[in-house]
Amino acid sequence: MSVTATTADVKDKRKDGASVRFAKDQLKAIVERIEHLEEEKKALAGDIRDVYAEAKGNGFDTKALRTIVRLRKQDANERAEAETILETYMQALGML
Predict the structure, then answer these.
(1) Contact yes or no for 95/88 (Cβ under 8 A)
(2) How far is 39 from 79, CA to CA, in rounded Å?
(3) Taking CA 93 as the corner, what is the angle to CA 89 and CA 95, rounded to the nearest 5 degrees?
(4) pLDDT tens digit at each of 96 positions of the chain
(5) DSSP character string of 41-55
(6) Which of 17, 45, 83, 90 could be joined to 95 by an S-S link, Cβ 3.0–4.6 Å?
(7) Residues 6 or more apart whose Cβ sits within 8 Å of residue 56
């Protein structure tokens, strides 16, 4: 659900106390939901850090793991295009 209120909308709603109260309650609920999601995001980021730390402790290269995770998010065509461009640049620089 998308909620967009302009200054004029808020002024119009001031005429009706119930509408103002509803808008305030709705705004408060939205802010609280965002805050809750931000807390969850912070907790998940900590969990991800823990998994990478565990992987490092088991001898895995975390930089390579991060690259693998990023590449797996791409579709095959997008990944192939990026690899082709990278290879072209590396050839131009004499790195291959």
Answers:
(1) no
(2) 32
(3) 95
(4) 555 656 555 555 556 678 888 999 999 999 999 999 999 999 999 999 999 999 999 999 999 999 999 999 999 999 999 999 999 999 999 999
(5) HHHHHHHHHHHHHHH
(6) 90
(7) 62
* b/e sequence 6-42, b meaning 16+ C-beta within 10 Å: eeeeeeebeeeeeeeeebeeeeeeeeeeeeeeeeeee
Q: Give the whole-angstrom CA distance, residue 82 versus residue 85.
A: 5
Name residues whose C-beta falls within 8 Å of residue 14's C-beta, 6 or more positions apart in sequence: 20
Query: What's the pLDDT at 19?
Result: 85
Residue with tokens 């939205």: 30
DSSP 1: -
- What size, in residues, is the chain? 96
Of 5, 8, 12, residue with least CA distance to 27: 5
Query: Using an 8 Å Cβ cutoff, are 3 and 26 in contact?
Result: yes
